[in-house]
Amino acid sequence: MTERITNALEVIASHLAAASPTPGAGDSFGSADAFVWHPNGRLAPVPRVSRVDLGLLKGIDRMRDILIENTARFANGLPANNALLWGARGMGKSSLVKATHASINVDRKPSDRLKLIEIHREDIESLPALMALLRTSDFHFLVFCDDLSFDGNDASYKSLKAVLEGGIEGRPDNVILYATSNRRHLLPRDMMENERSTAINPGEAVEEKVSLSDRFGLWLGFHTLQPGRIPCDGEGLLRPFRHQARRRELEREALEWSTTRGSRSGRVAWQFTQELAGRLGVRLSGK
Fold first, then answer.
1. Mean pLDDT for all residues in the chain
2. Which residues fall within 8 angstroms of residue 247, CB to CB, at 6 or more apart?
């Protein structure tokens, strides 16, 4: 019986150790500029971030400038806002976050470099543990969650809400949060309408979840082509293709490519560029 109890305690101790933040994890922040957060408390360094060059992101100049200014203020120790980049798919939201991080670190000495930490959507509940780990570091951190959204019965948004604003500890001064989403309020419209229609007080039915997006001080909208409107900053339909293909005679082929995919976004333009470069046997250096 004693042996069984001892074995059981050893198993419990090993599980508790795995669920706790790794001791000394903060000491390794100088080893890389980017990390991926794992809910067992491990920060995995990313030696080479998958990103595109900031100069390749065309048609989103206004959003680019706002985000860079906000990020630069934060990296310099000045007040800055958490940011929600929302809108149409493939418009460069996550690419802009990663490119902004790289541009901020240009010419910065190692001790002043901004650290990028990616947290996956399914690990949001472990966000308070990550904040506790980062709070004691001398570095500044940009915590990034790509494609953030919540379903009706998902309560993990409360962890994010407490970190953004409202919790006792709140967001550490050396941490800022950026998220991308296809939804402005992080919930699908049909779910919001359904909750309103079935609630005793429709006005309060989704207020708690909608207020989550309100806690991002900076909203940046990315819009694709709609009838009667041109995309992004207004130069026109072909700007992404002209920039990335760099030859006007390819515009017809580029338009045909975008039509077959039902989208005229920077992502589709980049995919066309990869197709063209592969066909011509040309290596790409912008990614």
1. 76
2. none
Which tokens sit at 197?
């229609």
Contacts of 55 by beta carbon, 8 Å cutoff, 6+ apart: 286
Q: Are 220 and 253 in contact (CB under 8 A)?
A: no
Q: Coil, strand or helix: which one is 116?
A: strand
User: What is the per-residue pLDDT across 109-138, written as a single tens digit (0 to 9) for each?
Assistant: 998 999 999 999 889 888 889 999 999 999
Q: What is the pTM of this model?
A: 0.69
253, pLDDT greater than 70 = yes
Return the beta strands (E) in 15-69 as ranges.
34-38, 42-45
Can you give the three-state secondary structure of 206-274, one letter per residue?
CHHHHHHHHCCCEEEEECCCECCECCCCCCCCCHHHHHHHCCHHHHHHHHHHHHHHCCCCHHHHHHHHH
The residue among 50, 5, 42, 45 whose CA lies nearest residue 20 is 42
Residue owning tokens 């903060």:
26
- Cβ neighbours for 88, distance < 8 A, ≥ 6 positions apart: 182, 222, 223, 224, 263, 265
DSSP 8-state code for residue 88 = S
Query: Token match 């806002």: residue?
Result: 81
pLDDT tens, 41-53?
899 999 999 888 8
Rounded to an integer, what distance in angstroms lies between the CA atom of residue 9 and that of residue 109? 47
Buried b (16+ CB within 10 A) or exposed e, 133-169: bbeebebbbbbbbbebbbeeeeebbbbbbbbbeeeee
Residue pair 69/206 in contact by the 8 Å Cβ criterion: no
Mean pLDDT computed over 247-269: 72
* Token reading at 143: 């915590």
